[in-house]
Amino acid sequence: MNIVLADSHPIVRCGLKAMLAMAGGINVVADVDSGDAANTAIALHRPDILVIEVGELPAVRSVKDTAVIVFTTRDDEHAIRSAIQAGVRGYILKTADDTDIVRAIRSVAAGELIFGRPVAARLAGVFQPIEQPFATLTSRQRQVADLVAGGLGNNAIATRLGLTPKTVRNHISQILTTLGLPTRAELRRVAS
């Protein structure tokens, strides 16, 4: 497989290139110092994979036929989220050992998404489970949301819970605000 390395630090590129040469089957066709230079190298060499620092991602957002792996020191939520939104296939920290780096490159070449262990642990904090926002509702609001999900109207919910229809409307309004949902239909979809 052919790879382009893009990192502003020559020592990083040199070390990666030497390590990958020893791994076998991985050919570094270019090592460059910026995202713009990476675009030129990609157009020239048509590599399978681009390994790039997260700060250079904006320059290569238009890359289509080359899988992108971020190789970085940054494990903050913003960097990870930006990389995922840019469509990267892998996110590896520079603290990873050589076997993990080679395995990640081979896995991405095989079509997998790869995130190093520390990054995977951070992803748990980036993506909330769907049920978690409901934990912020009161028990009465959860009852109302469950009945909305079941398809009941305000009058039926009021009768079932011993409330007035106006109180039910108030609960639904508060639920929509708390969960950041635009409509009752969206609440029904999310709650079911």
UniProtKB/TrEMBL annotation:
<dbReference type="InterPro" id="IPR001789">
    <property type="entry name" value="Sig_transdc_resp-reg_receiver"/>
</dbReference>
<dbReference type="GO" id="GO:0000160">
    <property type="term" value="P:phosphorelay signal transduction system"/>
</dbReference>
<dbReference type="Pfam" id="PF00196">
    <property type="entry name" value="GerE"/>
</dbReference>
<keyword id="KW-0597">Phosphoprotein</keyword>
<dbReference type="GO" id="GO:0006355">
    <property type="term" value="P:regulation of DNA-templated transcription"/>
</dbReference>
<keyword id="KW-0238">DNA-binding</keyword>
<dbReference type="Pfam" id="PF00072">
    <property type="entry name" value="Response_reg"/>
</dbReference>
<dbReference type="InterPro" id="IPR016032">
    <property type="entry name" value="Sig_transdc_resp-reg_C-effctor"/>
</dbReference>
<dbReference type="GO" id="GO:0003677">
    <property type="term" value="F:DNA binding"/>
</dbReference>
<feature type="domain" description="Response regulatory">
    <location>
        <begin position="2"/>
        <end position="109"/>
    </location>
</feature>
<dbReference type="InterPro" id="IPR058245">
    <property type="entry name" value="NreC/VraR/RcsB-like_REC"/>
</dbReference>
<protein>
    <submittedName>
        <fullName>DNA-binding response regulator</fullName>
    </submittedName>
</protein>
<dbReference type="InterPro" id="IPR000792">
    <property type="entry name" value="Tscrpt_reg_LuxR_C"/>
</dbReference>
<dbReference type="InterPro" id="IPR039420">
    <property type="entry name" value="WalR-like"/>
</dbReference>
<dbReference type="InterPro" id="IPR011006">
    <property type="entry name" value="CheY-like_superfamily"/>
</dbReference>
<feature type="domain" description="HTH luxR-type">
    <location>
        <begin position="130"/>
        <end position="192"/>
    </location>
</feature>
